[in-house]
Amino acid sequence: MATEPSSAENHRVVESLAARLRRRQVVGSRETALETVFVLRQVVSKARFSNIDQLVEIIRSVGRKLVEAQPKEYTVGNTVRKVLHHIREEYHTASQGTTASSTPKPSFSIAKFVSQGQPRKQATPQKTSHETRGMLKENNPDDPDAFARTLKPVLMEAIQDVFDELETVYDNISKNAKDHIHSDEIILTIGKSSTVEAFLKSAAPYRKYTAIVADTAPSYSGQEMAQSLSSAGISTVLVPDSSIYALMSRINKVILGAHAILANGGMFAITGSLLVATAARAHSTPVVVCAGQFKLTPQWNLYHEYGALDFADPSSVLGFEEGDLVDKVDVVNPFYDYVRPEMIDAYVTNDGDHPPSSVYRLIKEAYDDEDYEL
Amino acid sequence: MSTTTETVTQMVTPTASLKLSTSSIALPQPSCSSQSQMQALSSARASAQSQASSNSISPAAPAHAKSAIYSANANFQRNTKLNDANTIPNPNSDPNTNLNAPKSQKQMTKAERREQQEAQRAAKATAKTTASQSGTSSSKPTSTHKQSASVSGKGAAYPSAATPKKPGKGQDWKPAKGETKEGAYPHLQMDETPRGLRIFSHFGAPKPPAVTKGDIHPAIIRLGLQFAAFKITGANARCIAMLTAFKTVIQDYVTPPNNTLSRHLMVQLSPQITHLVSARPMSVTMGNAIRQMKLEISGSDIDLPEQDAKNALCDTIDNYIRDRILLADQVIQETAGSKIKDGDVILTYARSSVVEKVLLHSWADGKRFSVIIVDSRPMLEGKALLKSLTAASIPCTYLLLPSLPSVLPHTTTLFVGAHSLHANGAVFSRAGTAMVAMMAKSRSIPVVVCCETYKFAEGIRWDGVSKNELAPTPFPPSSTSNSSSQHNLAIKMNPNLSMLSPLYDLTPPSCITAVVTEVGIIPPSSISSIPGALGRVTIGA
């Protein structure tokens, strides 16, 4: 494709990120999303293309490569989709000039929304039909780079938008924290999610509550979390995972982080999330998930099975100090749990709070339908 | 008071003087003193086993050994015990805090006190002075807490949270925190801090140490140490160990003149029981066994010669162990084993002696199945089960509790043990069992509880919070990563952070498919009828 000649230097950036993803040197959904934005920015700034389809194809090929490197870091694909979405939008406004505003959104109807996705979609087919007007000229044989030259500044802006969203995601999520946390509540969380950490901390000045943190074997990241929360002045109780059920009857709310939110409203999250969510269900305790919208993933998962999970190194469960036991025993140490949508009461995102049942709508708004498969 | 000291001194004449001197000198090195103390005891009892256990206890859990040793001390120096309760655990428990400074001063006062007391003992005026001195000394640590509350008050309180089994200590710090809250620190945060803990403050309910009356038998002291150090855990093991120790106590018992065995033996035994309870709260199994033993003692024939009566009692104890525990386990092995088929994948949580027996027996029977062992902090007992099962070459999978959902699709049956069973069908068992049972139930995997009928407790419980015990080491440094142990160290410094680690939780009857007992397999809804069917031999007698 058009990518091959122009991507010699791009490949280095892409390869480097792909390698780091594969080696798990870059982990965590926000971290990988940020890295992806950086890579895409470099790719776009150096790419040579003479029409929008070429550009889209370049970005997609990069996206494919990164996703293949680490399919379980869903935010990589999401970021690519988001960038594509923004780029198309910018392209349409740039190529339309006045026409975009002259085609008013006709009427809102559920049927149209479901069949066509976002309202914007209704306008696009007409736009592409009478192609490139105004200042934008695609496939100019005289000056093949003219299109890229005119479009690049807006493209950079589009990518900057995605980046800004990632930058401000914690602030925007925790903006409403004090509406979710009341005084004297006892809140349970597990593991160390930066989103949940920011959320809980931002409520701390307004509400006096107690956070119970399960230490979340085998990473024991809950200890870090407990440490961080308590140093922010939140009264924190660190408990082992085994006591979650016993304490659940005294807990007012469970706040979890997510690794990826799926189109059906379920989510992948750190191991232990399913246990906590099920225990919370058994006690009718609300389960709130804090996650940025960059975690919305247009994929489905209906079962908690090996293929959907990702397995980590077993040494943290049963180390070599156990001697010959290591030879005789299978050790299981998955990274993530799949939590069904019925287990979750609400997603608190950087763009409002949503029930799991409306996640599909958010996904329709966030990405273009044609990008679901990169 | 002095008579009790004398009786013990008679028993251990060659070492009595040594003991007193070590305990007064060796305070800065508690593990050393505990060893010599234990050796003194064991030489008195001529038991090599005790020495072994003392050596293994001291390095592993000096704090517990220490606290228990303290209660051992108490019998020899009864007059100093109230002061010791406040001084010994505090300065030694956390050398990192600023309590280092008061430590030496307190030792000095302790020595002074002992001098005074020894002088006063002759004058028989001990009680008043001890009371006044303990009053002043007990107020000291509290005021230290108060003054240093914002900087290190919580830090100082931390070790007692970490080692909540230490009797007396826990009571010491909770009121101190309450005072912090109301008093000089009206910070909202400080105001809030105790709240989360207040809900759980009854956990473990540590009792003031060794307000034991009378004379504690060395076998009981040893057992108390083993309980406190969690060397003997598990409802069955603790019950058997206790009954065995009681047999020794009964054999060494001499009925005083003008008394009968059936009336006086219980007077002799109750301080022993109190001592064990102060080491670690009593299990339901122990309670049931003790109740049965009391029944037997009060029913023993007055006209029987003393030795015959003691032998008869020991026989009934032996029978109890055999019938209610060992034979019951065998029946359960057969019954539960019949529910295991070739190719099954058996899930189990932590380590239950009964479940272990069931699996080993079934494997020896030629059944070919595999076992998934789920484990969790604080106790990580599953590793012991893993060792014994792999030694029998049973194929095993090992995982930690949070990873449980990923193995559920392959599981056919869940077997768990129990600490006690309640009339509403709820199972009180190792913390985490409820979660495993809940997950299994949600996937329609049969949840089978293996439990002898002597574990049945009267009364109903609603949740695991209402009554619980705290684990000895809530967050043992992870063996694999140095980082987490570093976290542990750092965590101690933080005033807002506390730790809580219940030892048990309650599995609701809705999560249980069946309970395998020696009288058959019953649904949890029928548990309440079992004691009646057994003729109420043990329950609520």
Automatic annotation (TrEMBL), chain A:
For this UniProt record, the keywords arranged alphabetically read as follows: Cytoplasm, Initiation factor, Protein biosynthesis
Transmembrane region(s): none
Bias kind Polar residues: ranges: 115-127
Q: Name one GO molecular function term.
A: guanyl-nucleotide exchange factor activity
Residue ranges, compositional bias (Basic and acidic residues): 128-140
Give the Pfam families listed for this entry. IF-2B (PF01008)
Cellular localisation: Cytoplasm, Cytosol
Per the record, GO CC terms?
A: cytosol; eukaryotic translation initiation factor 2B complex
Positions of region (Disordered)? 113-143
SUPFAM superfamilies, alphabetized: NagB/RpiA/CoA transferase-like (SSF100950)
Taxonomically, the superkingdom here is: Eukaryota
* Entry-linked PANTHER family: TRANSLATION INITIATION FACTOR EIF-2B SUBUNIT BETA (PTHR45859:SF1)
Kindly state the subunit structure of this protein.
Component of the translation initiation factor 2B (eIF2B) complex which is a heterodecamer of two sets of five different subunits: alpha, beta, gamma, delta and epsilon. Subunits alpha, beta and delta comprise a regulatory subcomplex and subunits epsilon and gamma comprise a catalytic subcomplex. Within the complex, the hexameric regulatory complex resides at the center, with the two heterodimeric catalytic subcomplexes bound on opposite sides.
Q: Which family does it belong to?
A: Belongs to the eIF-2B alpha/beta/delta subunits family.
Output this protein's name: Translation initiation factor eIF2B subunit beta
From TrEMBL, chain B:
The record's annotation in Pfam families points to: IF-2B
Question: Region annotation Disordered: residue ranges?
Answer: 27-64, 82-187
Q: What is its main location?
A: cytoplasm
Q: Which UniProt keywords apply?
A: Cytoplasm, Initiation factor, Protein biosynthesis
The record's InterPro entries line, in alphabetical order, gives: IF-2B-related, IF_2B-like_C, NagB/RpiA_transferase-like
Q: Does the keyword Phosphoprotein apply?
A: no
Location within or outside the cell: Cytoplasm, Cytosol
Q: Where is the composition biased (Basic and acidic residues)?
A: 109-118, 169-187
Matching entries from SUPFAM superfamilies are given as: NagB/RpiA/CoA transferase-like
UniProt entry tagged with the keyword Protein biosynthesis: yes
User: What are the Polar residues biased-composition ranges?
Assistant: 82-108
State a single Gene Ontology molecular function: translation initiation factor activity
Naming one, the record's GO cellular component terms include:
cytosol
Where composition is biased (Low complexity), the residues are 28-64, 119-148
- The residues forming the signal peptide are none
Q: Which domain of life is it from?
A: Eukaryota
On subunit structure and binding partners, the annotation says: Component of the translation initiation factor 2B (eIF2B) complex which is a heterodecamer of two sets of five different subunits: alpha, beta, gamma, delta and epsilon. Subunits alpha, beta and delta comprise a regulatory subcomplex and subunits epsilon and gamma comprise a catalytic subcomplex. Within the complex, the hexameric regulatory complex resides at the center, with the two heterodimeric catalytic subcomplexes bound on opposite sides.
Q: Which family does it belong to?
A: Belongs to the eIF-2B alpha/beta/delta subunits family.
Q: What is this protein called?
A: Translation initiation factor eIF2B subunit delta
What species was this sequence derived from? Paxillus rubicundulus Ve08.2h10
